[in-house]
Amino acid sequence: MKLSLGAMAEPGSTRVTKTGAWRTFVPQVDHEACIKCSLCEIYCPEACIHQVEGLFVPDLDYCKGCGVCANECPRNAIEMILEEK
After folding, report:
1. What are the structural domains, with CATH classification, of the chain?
2. Radius of gyration (Cα) for the chain, nearest Å?
3. Structure pTM?
């Protein structure tokens, strides 16, 4: 798809394009410290954190490792660690 300057892509296009392959850091959630406030899920710019069986889990296929979730966590239950590939 060729885009000209100022063009916009169709909404939701990142749902079909896995964008997590180029990240350097990955969020590691300490589920014991998590108070389930859901701020990580709310503030994630990629909307890739979901609640699974009561635990907040990032979908690493789409996580870009930006660290917003870790920054917003009031309990510091998310640590950004260097991803080993």
Report:
1. 19-82 (3.30.70.20)
2. 14
3. 0.79
